[in-house]
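Field reference: sequence -> structure
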Amino acid sequence: MSAREGELDGGGKVGAPVARTSSGHGDGRSPASGRGSASRAARRSAPVYATLGLLATDVTMIVLGYLAGYHLRFSWNILPYEEYHPLSGYLGTLALQTLVMPVILGASGLYRPVRSVSWLDHFYAVFAGVSVGTAVSIVVGAFIWRDAPFSRLMSALVWLSTISLVMLGRAVVHTTGAYLRTRGVGEERVLIVGTGETARLVLERIRHSPHMGYRAVGFLAEEPGPVELAGLPVLGSVDQVGAVVRAHQIDDVIVAIPTTSPQQLLDIVSQCNLERINIKVFPDLFQLMTSGVSIGDLNGLPLVSVKDVALRGWNLALKRGLDVTVSAILLVLLSPVFLAIAAAIKLTSPSGGAFLCQERVGLDGKPLQVIKFRTMHPDAEAATGPVWATADDPRRTKVGAFLRRYSLDELPQLINVLIGEMSLVGPRPERPFFVEQFQMTVPRYFERHREKAGMTGWAQVNGLRGNTPIEERTAYDLWYVENWTLWLDIKILLKTVTTVLKGDNAY
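Structure field:
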């Protein structure tokens, strides 16, 4: 193999030029020099320093959280107390908590290097870790220091302040890390295996996520084709992956060929065995993404479960309890909003009603009358029949455009939820006209009707709202059905607020 500036040759196949760059996204430097190796070593050490910085921040915030809880209780004259407890009596518990809590946070996976943070999941993990750490410190401290003072209120204040400060410290660390990565600090060089639409999608996500610190270097082609794709060079063929990884100091390989066979994947891994790189595979949308894979056994015989329906038995009761509680509370609290919206609709479009009942396909394919605020002119589809809403849709009223922008037209579906026809979270129901079409073209589409339709869903909070590919929405819906948890519902409801405010594809 030759790693000359002009070409990369291997197995009789010539790759694209490797020394030039395009659109500022390629690198093109010859990394075989000592300088290149040092740069790679520096990149690999960045996650270690980031983890140590996060650990140091956590320890600092744990100590500050404990001290804040103590001073709120006994020093700052905010809360009355009958007996003053000196801080010296709590130093042992403070030291114990400072040692125990990072261990528990680490066991929860909170010190693994990450480049993108889901703050809801992060808060949940920190909440659980700090709660367990606080409980362990109290119990063990009471056993070791039997005569030490104890205040239940102070313990509660320490718990709350520690959660708050640890989350604050982590937000600062992660935000700083994201900022540094956008400036090239700790970047990882990525090689994309594939040149199809999936590979283009991976590149697009990399370019739109500079905070993650990935730098796409180029592509590998499945078969001879263009020497450049989307402004990046095609560096060779798939069977040259090992040579390209070494020549370009690659840190991450992303296999973006959904139809990759097990033998091809094994070949890619074997070529990179001697390199300290991460290999990730973009899965087939339906074969992997919609399957909740888990390991179990049959009396000692190992089995792999690739499909398991999570919403059954006790879980259904939990989900229904959440639906009834939240929908009832929101209907009471939002009743003035309902009146104001209904009045605005009638004043600006008096020829129609304020509400609209529209037939959708619900649980088990049965028809469902979904209640919405009317957002379009009466008989808006008389000439066209059922069609998708589009940006700047002329069928909308002025008030309707505002309601659809912030999804306020969906609020009356809380009534559907309360009476049990819908759920707060689930696959969004479609009109029968569209369902008939999708069943013919989208694999497993009807399986999304095995659960109640929802006001919001996993697809919607992941940006798949409105006129977006139904194949992707179906995959997300099926994943939700097969991986349901009560926390996932709560997470989706909280993310819905952010999604609605952004208003992407809401028209």
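Note: The longest helix spans residues 34-74.
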